[in-house]
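User: Fold this; tokens only.

Assistant: Input:
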Amino acid sequence: MKTRLFLTAILAALLLGRAAAWPTKLYGDGEVVGRAELIVVARVKEGSIKKIIAGRGSSYEHHAILVISRVVKGELHKEELPITISYGLLPVSARQEKHMTPDEDATKRSGPEEPGESTKIYEDNPSMGFGPRVSGDVYQEQIWLLHRLGPPRGDNPELSPAGAFGISNPEDLQPLKKEQQLSALLHTS
């Protein structure tokens, strides 16, 4: 009886789309630097953040364009690079941020950007609210530790293709003050 009840609870969680909602792992600097195929100092181009719905609306990702200042690791011969901000990370504008509470779903209120509006990336866990790990303003230069993402979830043709560059954890975005520390890790591997 207990086994049947347990299996029913798991099945219900899967059908409701909440099975993947748990605290994400914390990654150390060495691991983040090691897995990043491309590390750049960049900022998001204003007006480029777009929310893309996956499948039947149960998941999403955001697309943005990075304006590259310099490459720290890897090879890139472009001044701009389209990236994916994976599900679980949520760009939040300053006007949304001041009204956020841990139990509300800010993903439903993603309005259009306003020019010059500060935007931060929050860790977003549907069952636990917004995580404590938050980026600085993405329209200011930061260190982006980019890696190739897996296949998209869902059937929307606007989703990033497999192998697109992006971020999937809060640690994939670091403040400029950590550039020397992260660069030192490149030379120890």
